[in-house]
Here is the input.
Amino acid sequence: MIFSKAALLREVTFKTSRSGGKGGQNVNKVSSKVELNINIKISALFTEEQKEIITRKLSNRINSDGVLQVITEEERSQLRNKERGLEKLVILLNNALHLPKLRSATKPGKSVIEKRLKHKQATALKKINRRRDWE
Here is the structure.
């Protein structure tokens, strides 16, 4: 299931602060670091089954209250950090809820079996030819 940014915006809360690192005067006076929080436990976007899957797969990012946290401070602009944070959140949720396609068991083909047996026979003949008859 793919979640849109608009749907997530209703559930997400933003918290801004000053980001650290390089940036000179901009870092000291602009709150460009953005922290996105979404409470998975009480969210109306997900079914109970999806909530369990998200909680299990993203357990290292979810705190004890069930809040999923995404922090971005790469950009110098608060707005761009908000957009980037939402993109990260969408990717995280989609990856967590993605179910891999189940592999269906198949039999090996006749040519594969023949090739394996020919290789096996050639190896056996090689070893037979290396023997010395001591009798």
User: Anything to note?
Assistant: Strands lie at 13-17, 33-39, 67-72. Residues 110-130 form the longest helix (21 residues). The chain has a mean pLDDT of 87.
